[in-house]
Write a structure and sequence with these properties.
- Two copies of one chain form a homodimer.
- Chain A has 311 residues and is of the alpha/beta class.
- Chain A has two domains: 2-188, Rossmann fold (3-Layer(aba) Sandwich), CATH 3.40.50.720; 193-276, 6-phosphogluconate dehydrogenase C-terminal fold (Orthogonal Bundle).
- Helix content of chain A is 53%, strand content 12%.
- Chain A has helices at residues 2-13, 26-37, 51-59, 70-75, 89-96, 114-124, 168-180, 190-216, 221-227, 230-236, 243-252, 254-276, 280-300, and strands at residues 16-22, 41-47, 65-66, 79-82, 105-108, 131-132, 134-136, 157-160, 184-187.
- In chain A, helix 8 (190-216) crosses helix 12.
- The first copy, chain A, is elongated and about 70 Å long.
- At the A-B interface, helix 8, helix 9, helix 10, helix 11 and helix 12 of A face helix 8, helix 9, helix 10, helix 11 and helix 12 of B.
Amino acid sequence: MNSFSSDMRTAVLVEFGKVVIYGVGLIGGSFALALKAARAVGEVVGFGRRPVVLARARELGVIDRAGAHLAQELADADLVLAATPVGQLPAVLEQIAPHIGAHTVVMDGGSTKEDVVRAAYAAFGGRIGQFVPAHPVAGTENSGVAAAKSDLFWCRKVVLTPLPENGAGSLERAKRAWRLCGAEVCELTPAQHDRVFAAVSHLPHLLAFALVRDLAERPDAPLFFDFAASGFRDFTRIAASHPEMWRDICLANRAALLREIDAYQKQLRDFKAALQENDGASLEQGFTVARRARRAWGEKTEDGAVVARPL
Amino acid sequence: MNSFSSDMRTAVLVEFGKVVIYGVGLIGGSFALALKAARAVGEVVGFGRRPVVLARARELGVIDRAGAHLAQELADADLVLAATPVGQLPAVLEQIAPHIGAHTVVMDGGSTKEDVVRAAYAAFGGRIGQFVPAHPVAGTENSGVAAAKSDLFWCRKVVLTPLPENGAGSLERAKRAWRLCGAEVCELTPAQHDRVFAAVSHLPHLLAFALVRDLAERPDAPLFFDFAASGFRDFTRIAASHPEMWRDICLANRAALLREIDAYQKQLRDFKAALQENDGASLEQGFTVARRARRAWGEKTEDGAVVARPL
């Protein structure tokens, strides 16, 4: 009787009987915690390079157990999230693809999409319809499973870049999973995605890294850091991000990022020329365009605090 | 009896009998409010270009009255703060200098110092010892008297760039005023000041303006802004700053800022070359230098939240 009613409850509430997370860091761990908080998952099994991370993830209640045999665990998995740094995704997808079950939906959590899609076609072959490319827009300068939290995706956008081969079933299950995490699901093509994020995310990271590095390598660096204040703090917050992760993202989205650097260099040369020519009108006009756009964006998004209402 | 004890109290508590604020915006208004909160001022008299701003400042209790005759008000002023945008400071100092009393100490609140010092020598002539150049490091992307608050300088640095002509008395009174506002007083030479702030403040503003302008002027700008998230928010917060004020600062600190732009362009070319050559090791190494420096700075300053303990 008890076992019957418990089974009934499970059948009603649990949308994903078994979820496999490959790479249990900030994104993978938060995805697991969010699905657990929504009571939408039966069991979460973790895989990854470092056993110590998986042990910690278990201690924290992020995963239910560390998996031992990938092939065995994937065969009856409902959902797989490959959430490693993007540089490792091709190899990880190669490992995953041969073993998935007929109903398994696989997603990645990478910040770039064209390269992931290329790797996915190579890895999945005829099963490519089961792979739905995903990018949860919810990174922070912190990383690792200890930073994972169940509300990381709450009110955040998740961009899916569906493939022509994705059936309605796979796509709907992917969307459902992210909505259960409290996210707003959007769709772009992989090329659109990479162009947009090169401009609004990858370039700003590169620019912030460049500024801090420029100061850090000076012989009198402490003098500069001593007088850095709140403007510097916010501008450079993302320069505290994970170097390996951002190396991978920059390389993965190289072509789009190089185009953005070119456009930005031109913009900077314009301001520099205005400064050299003491052309205050051009400077003020350029600053005004920027200020107006930034204020409008801030008002629309409550200064980025709430990007969307979930569900 | 009542009037006697009230006078006694005034004599004990009020360090500055009369303070004149020329330019009652965020900085000038906050200076007035902070001295009032410290019960260190007898009367605050405001001057400025726009009568409506002075009326508003009076309504808000920031100034006690708007001044009518500058010469008359300055003759017995203990302290004058010229807190207009830096572009207007030369003209303002010209207006102020001829009328100050023998014991008046004049400060500016400008974000650049070499140009202000040049203008001050021209304006004050033999009275230059009464002018103490000051830069309270406490701007925000908001401006105007409505944003003024008594704790704006609390735990913030105020950089003085004393002149050889400043007597100990003038300098001590300048320091005392800012410490009463809760600030930590530091000293630099004008040239040091301008070099440091070109790097940690003026350049980041220019870079943030450049990024937002680059996006705002694209035909498909909304697509980009739609997907901008928290990294973009913080990186570009300072791009919402006041265009006229920043035009003035950039022009006033042109030489140092141009040198910083050159250094930054070189840094950006380095990252771009690494990206073109698919040189992940160089990227990661550069990012690591930046991350380490940014984390160390963040820990030392509680991520910039508290720059110093006051008093």
